[in-house]
Amino acid sequence: MNELDTELALSTLAGGGARNVDSPTEAGVVIVNTCSIRDHAEHKAYSFLGTMKQAKRENPDLVLAVIGCMAQKDGELIFRRAPYVDIVAGTAHFTRIKDYVDEVRAGGKRILALDRDEKVRSEIRAPQIRPDQHSAYVAVMRGCDHHCTYCVVPNTRGIEASRPLDEIVKEVEILVGDGVSEITLLGQNIDSYGKRLTPRATLADLIHRVAEVAGLRRLRFITSHPADIKPELIDCFRPGRIPNLMPYFHFPAQSGSDEVLKRMRRGYTREKYYEIVDAVREARPDIGIAGDTIVGFCGETEEDFERTLELHSRVRYQQAYTFTYSERAHTPAAKMALADDVPHDVKQERLQRLLALQRSIQEVDNVPRIGSVHEVLVTGISKVNPNAWTGRTPQNQLMHFRSERNDLTGRYLTVRVTRTTDLALYGELL
Ligand code: 5AD
Ligand code: SF4
Q: Phi and psi of 356, rounded to 5°?
């Protein structure tokens, strides 16, 4: 979502003729889009702002804006910690960045814009702003109505607001018209898409409609919440129903312990989670499931953590995003004084054990893919090997392959897997 918000903020400036430069010292405007999900992300933002002090001294005309979740959460504090910042604009203001830059240039005054009722003006962005000409994100909703006790998102992004279905379809049509063939629909809690819309619409309705846009070859959606999954959504994955809906499901469990899930206020048990995973796999056996897991949440015992290891062994994620718990101000956990009582080194040790298990699951599960044939959307030259190309399978797995041909980016090619690791498939072009 932050990557998309960055595109939208940049797009407002591009309308006035601005273009990207390679380093902050060459820029007339620097926008720092921030994340608050874990302490580490905020540290990175503040330390980057520290490096901007000198740039601002050398070029007093430079306009420095801080936007996103940390801006929303810290507000004034950012001006106190970095007095040379010109604009602090919260999570509803990224499409107003050009106005704010113009105001700063005209009047030299700082701007603090945190009102969450501000509306996103337009999600349409110029193609040159999009980092990828073939794949694009489309936000279908912003905010979250859940109250997971560890999570700062409901506080920074506010309650759920869904965009009207027709507006989303129109945006997808524009993107496809510009050459995009893969769309990922985004929502913090995408299964409750449409909740407050009239006429009401569901995520399944939206997927059906978007999938019909002519020229759209790949459709994905993230992120799903186990407490909100509806049977109609699972049915969308059945073979033949929606041919361009990709077999990929981002489905965070967060923990395998019912006690921890309760303290996290996730609203489901481990058994319920397994039931959904089984139903999804029954509907679509080749689906790639990705998860998010937090280790070391308040009160997590060794036994709780072992339940999480069991969950990873049972679900066998194709990919897992794993984190140590980071206590955040203003979250329910902080307000309820749930103690962040798992020592730092225990969190780290558990994370390492979980990572080792997950790595071995991926390594083992990739081996039987040797010999299988996949359609790959080529994303570009491999980052690790300039003689190889990289693409994504329908399951969103990375596939590397060699070819003497150039200009393959954006093409759909057929590749047979010849070798695998825990992280990627390697194949030959057919
Ligand atoms: N500490 C650690 N990880 C967190 N996440 C959300 N909040 C926290 C936190 N306070 C993780 C969850 C979520 C992902 C986006 O970030 O796993 O799914
Ligand atoms: Fe945060 Fe929970 Fe909402 Fe996800 S569902 S954004 S973890 S509150």
A: -65, -45
